[in-house]
Task: inverse folding
């Protein structure tokens, strides 16, 4: 780990003011240390020679004032450093969330969400030690030894030479110990991220684990990882304590060397008592910041390791489909289109291919499809055929690796993502409900909707009856992921959410796949209402799972083919598709 990671400063411009104050207070503390040593040497020498208290009263008052000022500078430096840490953590968390949104669900699917959560919470909290302890001490370690060395040189050049020769021993030992602890600290953080991620995954999947009787084995896995983390943590602490002992021993030996040569020359009459006291008081201060920075280095490594992982994510390039309105968009994209209406414009996919990193075959291959306003399209195919990948392209969660998607003759990548997604409603297989009220979940895509509009949307989707039977009606908290509701009720709320938004393009990803026949029949009736005056693309495993499916297409290993539909088909003018 580098002594000072410049990326932390680059990503935390708002904290530079606090850091500047911390450095200024460090400079003030350095000056106060020199003044304190001089006043204390004068007082002790005066007391030893029998100088009266009235003569020393001024120096004594000044010493008390210096001590108070030094305590205030230390306190102020720590407060401003903690505020800097709070600003940096806040900025890094916001940047991490914003960049994760730009990277999209396809990136998050390749990373354990629990580890990312641990990184953004417990991991970045470790930066408090970095900014409040390590960074101020690093500033003092750069300033105090040189200031002390210069002051001692003016008082006694021989002692200054001894201090100057022995000072480099402290950072040399600290570097050697740091190289030894680097791997241990990184392993500690990796185990913590693994433990946090696995624990979150287990908690989220606890009902399924209990159902299949796999709760105990997962508890054993957590216990094993916890034990590994305990062992690595104790190993890190052991190394930290040993490194502290090494640095303390080196500083003690160097201080003893100065004390011996000062004592011998004092006995020989080659040095005054006050000068000897000044040298002896300042010598420990020269080594103290270097010893302290070595100790604080270990306390800050966890936060710095977490910050490095955050930087790796922030340095991951976002796909071009993130849109030109985002900072990571490619500079050679066409000029942004202010508005493209999906009620009037055709979506055309020409030779579109999609390949995911680390996979041997393409998810989609040479796909050609024209979607006109008002079309009804059903995509059928087995799991892994590419149905959800096609929806991901239309949702701009993924970017085509080949071919082109146009909207009204305009390349899709030139349309701002926010403008595009405002015109889309998406109902997934397992819609996400937040820990909020039923009304808030329905109004997620239309937060300014009135209570009356929310009720109408619920009534249209057949959800009003069970919502009114809930203890708090529309104000009832649905719990995390809507676990207080059944699968069918969650789907109805998701459909009400899509109905309220009234977007011209509706994407349905097997909304009735996991429901019983009665619930599926009710949802299909709600979906039929939802389809009115919209372009609809519905995904299903089987063409027999849904009614009024319009034109039917099958996807097989990423290849799109048109199939004959046994159901009622809209007029041919509604759909033009080639494969």
Result:
């Amino acid at each position: 780990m580098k002594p000072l990671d410049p990326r932390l400063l680059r990503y935390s411009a708002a904290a530079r003011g606090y850091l500047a104050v911390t450095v200024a207070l460090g400079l003030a503390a350095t000056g106060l240390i020199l003044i304190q040593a001089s006043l204390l040497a004068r007082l002790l020498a005066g007391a030893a020679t029998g100088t009266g208290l009235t003569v020393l009263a001024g120096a004594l008052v000044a010493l008390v004032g210096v001590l108070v000022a030094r305590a205030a500078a230390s306190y102020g430096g720590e407060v401003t450093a903690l505020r800097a840490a709070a600003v940096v953590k806040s900025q890094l968390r916001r940047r991490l969330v914003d960049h994760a949104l730009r990277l999209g669900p396809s990136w998050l699917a390749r990373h354990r969400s629990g580890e990312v959560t641990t990184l953004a919470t417990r991991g970045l909290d470790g930066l408090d030690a970095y900014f409040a302890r390590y960074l101020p001490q690093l500033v003092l370690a750069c300033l105090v030894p040189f200031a002390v060395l210069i002051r001692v040189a003016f008082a006694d050049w021989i002692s200054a030479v001894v201090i100057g020769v022995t000072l480099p021993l402290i950072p040399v030992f600290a570097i050697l110990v740091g190289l030894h602890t680097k791997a241990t600290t990184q392993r500690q953080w990796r185990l913590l991220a693994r433990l946090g991620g696995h624990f979150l995954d287990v908690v989220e999947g606890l009902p399924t684990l209990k159902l299949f009787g796999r709760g105990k084995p997962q508890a054993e896995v957590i216990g094993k990882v916890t034990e590994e983390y305990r062992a690595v943590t104790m190993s890190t602490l052991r190394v930290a304590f040993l490194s502290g002992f090494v640095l303390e021993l080196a500083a003690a030996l160097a201080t003893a060397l100065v004390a011996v040569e000062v004592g011998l020359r004092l006995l020989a009459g080659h040095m005054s008592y006050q000068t000897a006291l000044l040298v002896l008081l300042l010598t420990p201060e020269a080594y103290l910041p270097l010893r302290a920075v070595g100790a604080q280095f270990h306390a800050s490594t966890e936060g710095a390791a977490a910050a490095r992982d955050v930087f790796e994510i922030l340095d991951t390039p976002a796909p071009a489909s993130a849109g030109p309105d985002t900072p990571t968009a490619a500079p050679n994209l066409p000029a942004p289109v202010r508005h493209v209406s999906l009620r009037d414009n055709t979506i055309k996919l020409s030779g579109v291919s999609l390949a995911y990193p680390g996979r041997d075959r393409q998810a989609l291959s040479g796909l050609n499809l024209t979607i006109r306003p008002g079309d009804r399209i059903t995509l059928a195919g087995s799991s892994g055929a590419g149905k959800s990948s096609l929806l991901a392209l239309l949702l701009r969660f993924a970017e085509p690796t080949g071919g082109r998607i146009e909207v009204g003759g305009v390349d899709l990548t030139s349309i701002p993502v926010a403008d595009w997604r405002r015109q889309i409603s998406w109902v997934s297989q397992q819609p996400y409900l937040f820990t909020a009220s039923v009304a808030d979940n329905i109004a997620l895509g239309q937060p300014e909707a009135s209570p009356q509009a929310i009720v109408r949307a619920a009534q249209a989707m057949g959800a009003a009856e069970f919502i009114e039977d809930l203890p708090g009606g529309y104000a009832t908290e649905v719990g995390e992921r809507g676990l207080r509701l059944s699968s069918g009720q969650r789907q109805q709320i998701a459909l009400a959410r899509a109905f309220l938004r009234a977007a011209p393009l509706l994407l349905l990803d097997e909304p009735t796949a996991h429901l019983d026949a009665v619930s599926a029949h009710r949802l299909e009736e709600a979906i039929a209402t939802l389809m009115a005056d919209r372009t609809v693309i519905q995904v299903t495993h089987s063409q027999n799972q849904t009614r009024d499916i319009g034109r039917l297409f099958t996807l097989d290993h990423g290849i799109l083919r048109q199939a004959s539909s046994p159901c009622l088909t809209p007029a041919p003018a509604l759909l033009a598709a080639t494969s």
Remarks:
- Residues 448 and 454 are 10 Å apart (CA to CA).
- The chain has a mean pLDDT of 77.
